[in-house]
Write a structure and sequence with these properties.
Strand content: 5-15%
CATH topology of one domain: Arc Repressor Mutant, subunit A
CATH class of one domain: Mainly Alpha
Distance between the termini: 80 Å
CATH superfamily of one domain: Winged helix-like DNA-binding domain superfamily/Winged helix DNA-binding domain
Number of strands: 3
Helix content: 55-70%
Radius of gyration: 27 Å
Order of helices and strands: HHEHHEEH
Number of helices: 5
Length: 119
Amino acid sequence: MRRDVFQGIADPTRREILNMVAHKSLNMDSVAEHFDVSRTAIYKHIKILTECGLVTVKQQGRERYCEAKLQKLGEVSDWIDQYRQFWETKLDALEKYLHELQNVSTPKNKKNKDHGKQK
């Protein structure tokens, strides 16, 4: 089954695995040692990451090493960018509106009512 990158990053354990192997290639046992779940559970997470195209597993002698393939995260970045642009436009409009309100409520020629009064 082919999964998409969003399924790969949906789980916090998978995100942590991805973060670990992004820095250096690790064998399966080294990855599993960092978690308080069974090795089988970690292997299933790695399988999902592999199916998503975020991790490759390479055999080196008797060991299997996980390596990150982060190019696929570009899909996530592209998807997020459309919403970032949307919200930046909305927030820029809100900022402009708030500045306009502030300028209307505090004109520069407004005199302080307490000017000249002594307490």
